[in-house]
């Protein structure tokens, strides 16, 4: 397995617009275990918003960071976090590891592994086999790193483990792949096949200046305007914005729901 380092533009084009971030908090991803989170919590890794920095802010443990940061002098090989995917299972292709604002205390190296667990507590079972998704790779300070496999995994996974060697900090972690939904035996069952949980992907859009188009595919209702799709204003007569959604699987469409929750003075007129 070969790991390729992508530019942000190439990663957006070849990964983000073709696959789903299957560990994101908004999709239901959840941290179930970690080795240490002395300075900053592991759950920050999968927060949806971009990390921020407040150099004047301190906690009992030390300087505040918007990410996951462990204590110094780790005596083990690596610190780690285990995350349960927000989907039933997924095949995996690539990841973004962002060390934003971690400079001098960033994770020097990272690796990513995955497995299948029928119960979250089984991560402690020494017989569980963890497959390498992204091999140990160097990280730099305060930057976004885009790692891509040469091919998508054949195995379908439910849980992922990110390691950093030996310790340090990571601001955000995104992991992309193909969702494998659970299709009911009763084919008359109504399913939202545009939902990211069912494998829906936003593959193209006209604009997403204020809000990402893939927010359209998240489960539930948005919690505020940041949790939706919003384009910049156009003064061109007849202008139309659009998003192209690839459904999770072939669908006979019986119902369409358009939810403009929280968009009060900027909702689409038509």
What does this structure look like?
There is one protein chain. The protein is mainly beta and 270 residues long. The protein contains 1 helix and 14 strands; from the N terminus they run βαβββββββββββββ. A 5-stranded antiparallel beta sheet has the order 1-9-6-12-2, covered by helices on one side. A 5-stranded antiparallel beta sheet has the order 3-5-10-7-8, with no helix packed on it. The mean pLDDT is 95. Residues 28-179, 199-269 form the Allantoicase domain. Belongs to the allantoicase family. InterPro entries: Allantoicase (IPR005164), Allantoicase_dom (IPR015908), Galactose-bd-like_sf (IPR008979). GO terms for molecular function: allantoicase activity.
Could you give a short description of this structure?
With 270 residues, this protein is mainly β.
């Amino acid at each position: 397995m070969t790991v390729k380092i992508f530019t942000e533009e190439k990663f957006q084009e070849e990964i983000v617009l073709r696959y789903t971030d299957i560990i994101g908090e908004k999709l239901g991803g959840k941290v179930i275990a970690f080795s240490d989170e002395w300075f900053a919590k592991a759950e920050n890794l999968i927060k949806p918003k971009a990390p921020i920095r407040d150099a004047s802010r301190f906690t009992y443990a030390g300087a505040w960071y918007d990410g996951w940061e462990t204590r110094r002098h780790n005596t083990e090989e690596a610190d780690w976090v285990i995350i349960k995917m927000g989907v039933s299972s997924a095949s995996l292709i690539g990841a973004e590891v962002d060390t934003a604002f971690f400079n001098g205390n960033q994770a020097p190296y990272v690796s990513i592994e995955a497995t299948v667990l029928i119960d979250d507590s089984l991560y402690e079972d020494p017989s569980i086999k963890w497959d390498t998704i992204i091999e140990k790779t160097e990280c730099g300070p305060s930057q976004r790193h885009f790692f891509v496999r040469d091919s998508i995994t054949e195995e379908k996974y439910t849980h992922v483990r990110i390691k950093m060697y030996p310790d340090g900090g990571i601001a955000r972690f995104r992991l992309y792949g193909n969702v494998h939904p659970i299709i009911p035996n009763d084919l008359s069952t109504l399913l939202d096949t545009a939902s990211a949980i069912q494998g829906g992907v936003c593959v193209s859009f006209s604009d997403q200046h204020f809000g990402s188009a893939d927010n359209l595919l998240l489960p539930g209702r948005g919690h505020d305007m940041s949790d939706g799709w919003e384009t910049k204003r156009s003064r061109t007569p007849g202008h139309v914005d659009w998003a192209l959604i690839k459904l999770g699987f072939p669908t006979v469409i019986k119902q369409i729901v358009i939810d403009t929750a929280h968009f009060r003075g900027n909702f689409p007129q038509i």
